Amino acid sequence: MCGIAGIFHRDGRAADGDAVAAMSAALVHRGPDGEGTWLEGAVGLAHRRLAIRDLSDGGRQPMLDASGRIVVTYNGEIYNDQELRHELERSFGFRFRSSCDTEILPYAYLAWGDAMFERLEGFFAIGLWDRQERRLILGRDGIGIKPLYYSEGRDGVLFASEIKAITASKEVAARIDPVALHTFLAAGHTGTRQSLFQEIRHVPPGTIIAFTEHARTERCFWRPVRSPAIDDLDEAVARLQSTIETVVKSQMVSDVPLAVLQSGGIDSSLISLTLGRLGLKPPLFTAGFTEKSHDETEVAQQIAAAAGLPLNVIDGEAGERAEAALRAVVYHFDGQCADTGALGFYHLAGAVRRHSTVVLSGDGGDEFFGGYETYAATMMAEGARRLVPRSVAGLTGRLAYASVRGNEKRLPATAQLARFALGLGEGGCSPHLQWRRLVPRFLADRIYDRAMTDLIQTNPFSEYAEYYAEPHEKVLDRALIADQRFHLQSVLAKVDAMSMAHGLEVRVPILDRRVMDLAGSLDVSLLNPWPKGAPKYVLRKLAERLGMQGAAAWSRKRGFNVPIAQLMRRGGLRPICVRVLDREADVFAPFLKPDAIRRLWHEHLERRSDHAFALWPILTLGIWLTGLAAPAPRQAS
Q1: Domain holding 26: CATH number?
Q2: Fewest C-beta atoms under 10 Å: which of 57, 78, 252, 503?
């Protein structure tokens, strides 16, 4: 787990060593244990190391094969590296110098070329330079656990783990793309292809992009699919238990301390209970909140007791440190994500890093096993949208939205009604795409300025809709695929940026390709059998088998979010909200109307409306635009 960056000047200009060094320096938090650069002519590669496996100098990067043809800079973990190592030794005669998983990559490329990516089990962002073919290859793991940004021009290509490293080169500017901003304000992220900035893009998950001096090629080597073949509950539970045990055991490989992020949810509980059955004893960490509707420590304590593992409870709120933490959150996101759970996760990651360098997390279970309550809403909406006129639904949604006012519970019933009705009122083939919309269309009408007015009537979820349009007979299959390929990106961006802010590696067993492929083969009746069963039905059955108490196994999902409405009105975030959303709101022009933002803020502050979710991406953008985003001092973590 590290930070990577590089430059390839297609016009033959020599790569600037100072620019490469600046790119590397921007990523120091991702790799505090060492750095390396490789320069040759038009190419410069950089690496920041977080030492996890083979702590010796044998794991330093950028790394070359013995012949010197292939140079690799890599971020991630390969779990089947021993299997690949033996095959490369046996079939191709290669000899290895270290036990580091990085070393298999240049040899795997020499053996299999681009086809090596299909063979890798793990998560990764890879920059590989073929000196003989003068070819740069950028590859990203199948589901997008590790980020990889790039900027392509006629004269050159730059890439890095984070946008700040690309802009640090001084070769690329960061100008806001209104279309990407339209998506960001609705979804809290920009999707899998674009960034918030015109000149910088994402390598999509499961994709390799190759650049030569005159050409560019792109190929998807893996993506999640829904091909239901298993509808027997006992078979599904047995196969899941076996697969999760195999995956969790494989992900325990580490030469540094390892722990588990334990919430009150099913996914992390399955990991902890599996570790207990395997006889492994890593410590558990969970976040505590004073607002009881957000707090899950009681269930976490039950799981720790059942698994026989020690539990540590971390303050998830930060109190007076909230402003410094949020500024750091935006800095590490480069303004690219507005996940409302990021603030709590930032604190949790910082606290855990004092004890461990690697943690296992339960992310991905909702998207692959039907855990969100929005799935039931989607199935209900299939009938409701044919019966309820859009105008009636839209009016109902706006009235319900206005009635939330000062209710600061996690998600009041009126807020749920507002989301459901506003989704129905949007029209289109699926309200599912609208359930998580942060800035609803009726607010966009109020706040969009001249650079954005032409976008108000366009769909901010065009990429999301593309995935939802896959030809599946059942609506839940379509919703699952869409969330796996689009919504999950917000979760993964949060986990990566907030953990790497502290030099913490997060491993996600449920997003191992073996688990994802198995989930894709399960019939939806085993995942979310609405209205006769609970979401994540098969995982709940497995959790009971592994020893989770029934009340916890069948409890309602809460999710990992901080009480942002409360923090913004009277908590530690009020001062920065006043500054960004009121005093310095002119910074939003020409994208958003400053006075409209001020009115939105005052309506929220004075409890006339609850605009917390709508204001969150606006606040994130404003912190970035005002230059307030900054890494927090280490003691504020």
Answers
A1: 3.60.20.10
A2: 57
